[in-house]
Design brief:
With 256 residues, this protein is α/β, with parallel strands linked by helices. The chain contains six helices and nine strands. β8 and β9 form a beta hairpin.
Length: 256
C-alpha cells in the first residue's frame, strides 16, 4: 500500500506506517525545520510545502492519506476557537484533497480535545463524501512511553468496505508495557527522544538532559526550540505502526 502524508511534521505517522509495511509516495509540510528532518530521512520522497497548493493536479493517487492537521485552535492550551479557527481550519484543505484523490483509507490525528471541538465536522464531511469512520483516543503510555500524551486517531474508509471494519479497540494497557517499547531517554521537558526495547530498559528508566536552559546563553544544542516544538507536535511512531498493521490486516482479510 502507498500513502501520502499531509501536515507531515517530522514524520511520526510516516515512520510508523512504513514500519507496518506501507510505502510513502509524497509528503506535504510547510515548516522549514521539519522539512529539513524529512529531507534527511526520506531523501527520495516527493515533497510539497503548502497544503493549499496541492491536490489532484500534482499529487499522485495513493491508497491512504494520513495527517495530523493543526491543533492550535482545538487544543485546551489555546483560545479554543475550534475547527473553524484560522489554523485548525486547514481541515477544509485536508478534506478537499481527500475528495480530489479519493483514497481507499484516511488516517486523521489530532489532540483528544477534537472529540468536543471538531469531530462532528470531520465525521460529517467524511460521511458526505461516502466514507465510514472509526476513532479512538490512544495514549502514548499504552505503547511504551512514560508519558500519557492522549491523541485521537480516526480511520475512514469508503462505504463499499462497510461490510467489515478496521478494529481500533485498544488492547494494550499500561500494565503490559513489557510487551511493547519503553522510552529510556528523555529530554528536559519529558519529551521522548528515543524508544528502546525492554531488553535495553535500565534500572532507573530515566536519563535526563541536565543542560540548563539559561536566558541569553548558548546551551550548545542547535535548533533546540525548533526541535522541542517539532517533538511536541509529533505522533508516536509505534501508534501509527499499530494502526497501519490493523489496516493491512483488514485489507488482506476483506479485499481478496
Amino acid at each position: 500500500m502507498r500513502f501520502g502524508s499531509l501536515f507531515a511534521g517530522i514524520g511520526g505517522l510516516d515512520l510508523g506506517l512504513e514500519h507496518s509495511g506501507m510505502n510513502c509516495a509524497w509528503q506535504v509540510e510547510i515548516d522549514d525545520h521539519c522539512t529539513r528532518v524529512l529531507e534527511k530521512h526520506w531523501p527520495n520522497v516527493k515533497r510539497y510545502r503548502d497544503v493549499r497548493e496541492v491536490g489532484a493536479h500534482n499529487l499522485e493517487p495513493v491508497d491512504l492519506i494520513c495527517g495530523g492537521f493543526p491543533c492550535q485552535d482545538i487544543s485546551g492550551a489555546g483560545k479554543r476557537e475550534g475547527i473553524g479557527g484560522k489554523r485548525s481550519g486547514l481541515w477544509t484543505e485536508y478534506y478537499r484533497i481527500i475528495c480530489e484523490l479519493r483514497p481507499r483509507y484516511v488516517l486523521v490525528e489530532n489532540v483528544s480535545a477534537i472529540l468536543v471541538r471538531g469531530m462532528d465536522v470531520v465525521l460529517g464531511d467524511l460521511a458526505a463524501s461516502g466514507y465510514d469512520a472509526e476513532w479512538q483516543c490512544l495514549p502514548a503510555s499504552a505503547f511504551g512511553a512514560r508519558h500519557r500524551r492522549d491523541r485521537a486517531f480516526l480511520v475512514a474508509y469508503t462505504d463499499k468496505r462497510a461490510n467489515g471494519h478496521v478494529e481500533l479497540c485498544l488492547t494494550k494497557t499500561e500494565g503490559e508495557a513489557e510487551t511493547g517499547l519503553r522510552c529510556s531517554h528523555w529530554d528536559q521537558f519529558g519529551l521522548v527522544t528515543r524508544l528502546v526495547a525492554p531488553s535495553e530498559w535500565t534500572a532507573t528508566g530515566r536519563e535526563c538532559d541536565t543542560r540548563p536552559l539559561l536566558l541569553r546563553n548558548d546551551d550548545g544544542v542547535p535548533h533546540r526550540v525548533d526541535r522541542l516544538r517539532a517533538l511536541g507536535n509529533a505522533v508516536v511512531p509505534q501508534i501509527a505502526e499499530w494502526i497501519g498493521r490493523c489496516i493491512m490486516e483488514f485489507e488482506a482479510e476483506h479485499m481478496q
